[in-house]
Amino acid sequence: MKKIEDTRVVVGMSGGVDSSVAAYLLKEQGYDVIGIFMKNWDDTDEFGMCTATEDYEDVIKVCNQIGIPYYAVNFEKQYWDKVFTYFLEEYKAGRTPNPDVMCNKEIKFKAFLEHALALGADYLATGHYAQVEVRDGQTRMLRGRDNNKDQTYFLNQLNQEQLEKVMFPIGHLEKKKVREIALEQGLATATKKDSTGICFIGERNFKEFLSQYLPAQQGAMETMDGKVMGQHDGLMYYTIGQRHGLGIGGSGDPWFVIGKDLDRNVLLVGQNINNDALFSTSLTATDLSFTTTLEKPQSFKATAKFRYRQEDIGVFVELIDNNRVRVIFDEPVRAITPGQAVVFYQGDECLGGATIDEVFKDGLKLDYVG
Amino acid sequence: MTRIYLDHAATSPMAEEVIEVYTAEMKEVFGNPSSIHQTGRKARKKVDDARTILAKSIGAHETEITITSGGTEADNYAVFGTAYARKNEGKHIITTQIEHHAVLHACEQLEKDGFEVTYLPVDKNGLISINDLKNSLREDTILVSVMYANNEVGVIQPIVEIGELLKDHPAYFHTDAVQAYGSLSIDVITSHIDLLSVSSHKINGPKGIGFLYQRKGILLKPIFYGGQQERKKRAGTENVPAIVAFAKAVQLKQATFTNGNVEYNQLKQVFLSELERLKVPFQVNGSQESVLPHVLNISIPNTDVETFLVQLDLAGIDASSGSACTAGSIDPSHVLVAMYGESTPELRNSVRFSFGLNNTEEQVLEAANKISKIVL
């Protein structure tokens, strides 16, 4: 076992408060800490301003305050190839992708991890709200202590090999406490606003952003029985269960997106937040990945999340093959969305996850969902 | 860990004598050279004496020297100053693909403003062709800007030949000599140079000071307006201590000119032989015949510059590559792109080492050894 001062940890620093405190805590514990900023996207405007430049400025300030070296690394090409291309493909296919899951899988804990190891790092640390703990010789990924912030949903594709090299120094803390530490230490990012949304879109208008890359095709909005309710701006702008932005007026219950008919370019809508057509009872998912290398039973009970920050639901998981699973819900679930992740838990432990592919109600495939 | 600084082409440490002069001037001379009183006159004399030293160092007259805040301002003044003074005579400018960004980005800005710019290519040795230049010259060409020696690979351009070619053409001949000055003997008269940029901090002088040589009769539109300083060419109260210290650095360079060049080239050769002895695979980028003595750019197969430079830093060696881009990450060098094309491994595995004051043979041997440990 290496001594703490000989253990090199590369911290992925985003210029936000979470990774700043992660780096600070590791330095306090005596590790050989290096801060590295990842540049994955270039949004330089005509005046030469770029979000990444501002974030990197914050990384420089914080690293100098903590007293650690800082560097930057450019993964724009890998990000474009592995994350952004996937993101566009999924939208083209009428699904709702999760670029954060893909970024963690392909960039942060793959390309960036390799970069860190090449620099002699023993571990890669990030400011994620998640925890790792060794039990029975396997590194387990546990939920972040702050239930409201837990980010294991986005980390579900990490495998054992990756987890063995990972540290989540703030995973045992509440967000409030993280801010407190940053304030106490006077870190430059202590009061910086949390970033929201998808990193490459930032605060910009989602529709406008997407329209730069994918042609939008307007079409009809119809009820399940074919009644035309209005026009949609392009199917890719809508996700299952969405309420806002439909523009269907009139009295009665609000309207929701129920599904999409890609062949006819029709957006299917229905009234009532608990519209029966929004509910399903099972799904199949692909890109199955487990956090440990333990032998998995052919079927098992677990709890699952179908989107970020959702309460867990009891499920029964059946392995179809190495890459696919069937997930049967204990109770009907609303607005299951193809392209999003289904993530499995047993108690505090995140077992892994997969990408939602097809959705079923009582054994019948809901074609309108995707 | 004592660090080994092999990045003198980025910036250089100030010589002891320069620091002494600099601090002494800060203590003793605070007057404004434009003032009519004795305190002002004392400062004015210091600036005049310094200007004479700067002028003589390139064979110029002191009225031809405009002191600037450094190389970037000198380049900008030469490029924008020529363009806006001569826009009625022509709007065509010739430069090279391997210029410093202080020239390149200024030219790109002028393109947005209706000027036409020809960017001369270079061969794989980093040299432009005189024929290309000849073929690009037009009646409406108002400026030719070719750097004296490149900052990334150290390759020296055929300045005398360019001057010869241009002496009968109305275009002004500007050369960015920021990297060459101090290492090469420069004569603006015999080289037919009209405009020449120099920076102090590359020759062990203070930062934030430099000059533009402007041949008598060459008219530029100023970029700064205000007081009457620098014969109205560059408004702003003079940075007297920095100017005096700059002149001191120039004198020191001149005194050690031959020895310094031999010594730095010797360090380069020792470094290269040690890399060879240790069986580190490498290839030198750029001409070996026409190159600055203290600059070395090598490509090491199977390394990645973004990783390698960090490894060097963690091992205590300061070196660099290309130019830092937005947010600290490294862009492929435009110089290497010009030499080798868009998609060759050299763009991702080349590093610049540059030698200078206070470097020793022990240091470069140690650096080579550390590199072999990283690479092999």
Automatic annotation (TrEMBL), chain A:
Using the UniProt record, name the top-level EC class of this enzyme in a single word: transferase
Q: Where is this site: Interaction with tRNA?
A: H128, Q340
| Entry GO terms, CC | cytoplasm
Write down the chemical reaction(s) this protein catalyses: S-sulfanyl-L-cysteinyl-[protein] + uridine(34) in tRNA + AH2 + ATP = 2-thiouridine(34) in tRNA + L-cysteinyl-[protein] + A + AMP + diphosphate + H(+)
Q: What is its EC number?
A: 2.8.1.13
Q: Name one GO molecular function term.
A: tRNA-uridine 2-sulfurtransferase activity
Q: Where is this region: Interaction with target base in tRNA?
A: 98-100
Protein name in the entry: tRNA-specific 2-thiouridylase MnmA
From TrEMBL, chain B:
Q: Which Pfam families match?
A: Aminotran_5 (PF00266)
Superkingdom classification of source: Bacteria
Catalytic reactions of this protein: (sulfur carrier)-H + L-cysteine = (sulfur carrier)-SH + L-alanine
> What GO MF terms are annotated?
cysteine desulfurase activity; iron-sulfur cluster binding; metal ion binding
Q: What class of enzyme is it?
A: transferase
Q: Which residues form the Aminotransferase class V domain?
A: 4-364
- EC number in record: 2.8.1.7
Q: Which cofactor does it need?
A: pyridoxal 5'-phosphate
Q: Does the keyword Iron-sulfur apply?
A: yes
InterPro entries associated with the record = Aminotrans_V_dom, Aminotrans_V_PyrdxlP_BS, Cysteine_dSase, PyrdxlP-dep_Trfase, PyrdxlP-dep_Trfase_major, PyrdxlP-dep_Trfase_small
Q: What keyword terms does UniProt attach to this protein?
A: Iron, Iron-sulfur, Metal-binding, Pyridoxal phosphate, Transferase
Family according to the record: Belongs to the class-V pyridoxal-phosphate-dependent aminotransferase family. NifS/IscS subfamily.
Task: State the protein's name.
Answer: cysteine desulfurase
Q: Which organism is it from?
A: Psychrobacillus psychrotolerans
Q: What is the lineage of its organism?
A: Bacteria, Bacillati, Bacillota, Bacilli, Bacillales
